[in-house]
Amino acid sequence: MQMQNSFSNLILGGGDVPKRRRLLYRLAKSAPQVLVEYVKDFSRYLKFSGTLDGTPAENLLARITATYHNIEKGLSLPQPRLGFGKENLTNLILAMQKYQRLYGPTHPILSSAHEVLATYARYHESRNYPDYPCKQEIQKMLAAAPQADVQMGGTRLVQRETIMNAVAPVSEEFFMQRHSVRAFSDREVDIADIEAAVRVAQKSPVVCNRQSGAVHIIADPELIKAALDLQMGARGFSQAVNKLLVVTVDLRNFWQAGERNQGWMDGGMFAMSLIYGLHLRGLGSCCLNWSKTNSQTQAMRELVGLQPWDSIIMLIAVGHIPEEVVVPFSSRKDPLLVTRVIKNWKK
Ligand SMILES: Cc1cc2nc3c(=O)[nH]c(=O)nc-3n(C[C@H](O)[C@H](O)[C@H](O)COP(=O)(O)O)c2cc1C
C-alpha cells in the first residue's frame, strides 16, 4: 500500500517535493536494471521452456510426464469415471509417438507412460468397459513396449498403518532442531550422505511429477571458495564449508505464461526437502541466497559447468556440526499472526 502511494504520488504529483525527488532518483537508478533483468528472464524462458517449441527431447519428456500424470491422478481418485481422459490419452499417445520417432524407442519416462496406459486399460477391462477412449492405439503401444522389471507408473495401494509407522518416530523436535549452521567441524562429509539427502529431496511434491530439481555437489575446496566469492553471503564461515551444493531447476520442464515462475516453487520445495534430508543424516547446512542478476548467474554457470537452461535456486553450505555451535536466535512470528481460519467467505 505504501509503495502504491509512493508510486501514485510520483505519477500524479502528490507528496512533498523532496520526497518526489528521492522517488524519481530511485526510479531512474533501479527501474532500468529491474526491467533489463525481467527482459533477460523473459527471453530465457521463451528460449528454453516448451512455450514456443515442445520438440526438443527434454521439453517433450516433460509434456509426456505431465500428461501421463494427469491420467495417473485420475486413476487414483476414489471412483474414477469410466472412459475419462480422452484428450489426455490422445495427447499422451501423440507425444510418445513423436518422442519415439525423433529420439528412439525407449526412455524411463516412456516406460512410466506405458504403465499408466496399461493400468488405464486394466481398470476399464476389469469393469466391463471395453470401449474406452484410444483403445486401439493403447493396445498397439503396449504390444510394442518392452516389459518393465520394476513398477514405473500407474497407481499403488498404501496402507494408513504404513504411513503412521513411518511418522511415529518423528516429532516436531526434528524440525525445531534444524538450524542454519555457520560453523562446521573438520570432518569430511561423505558424498553418500548427500546422495541420500537427494533421494529425500526427490520425494518433494512437484508439479505434475515433472522432476526439474537437481543438485550439483562442489567438493573441491578451491572451487568452493570461488563459488562462495561469487555468492558473497558466506563471509566469515566460507573456509569451513566442506561441501557446497548448487540447487538448480531445469527450465525445459515448464511452458506457457502460467508456469513462468513454477521452477521457483518446485526448486524451493526441492531445496527444503534436501535440507531436511541432510538434517536426517546429522549434517549441518546453511542456505545461501542466489538473489542475483543474469550476468552473475552466467558467471556461476561457467564456474561450475551448469547448462543455460539451469536456473539457480540457491546454494547450500554443508558440513558436520561441531560438538557445540552458536546459531542466531532467529525468532519466529507468533503462528497466530500468519494463520487465518476462513469460516465463512462472505463475511
Ligand atoms: C533462500 C535462502 C537464502 C539464504 N541466504 C543466506 C545467506 O546468503 N547467508 C546466510 O548466512 N544465511 C542465509 N540464509 C539463512 C537464513 O538466514 C536463515 O534460514 C533464517 O535466518 C532462519 O534461521 P534458521 O534457518 O536457523 O531457522 C538463507 C535462507 C534461505 C531460505
Automatic annotation (TrEMBL):
Keywords: Flavoprotein, FMN, Oxidoreductase. Pfam families: Nitroreductase. Residues 176-233, 252-320 form the Nitroreductase domain. GO terms for molecular function: oxidoreductase activity. Its cofactor is FMN. The keyword NADP does not apply. Belongs to the nitroreductase family. PANTHER family: NAD(P)H NITROREDUCTASE YDGI-RELATED, NITROREDUCTASE. This is Nitroreductase.
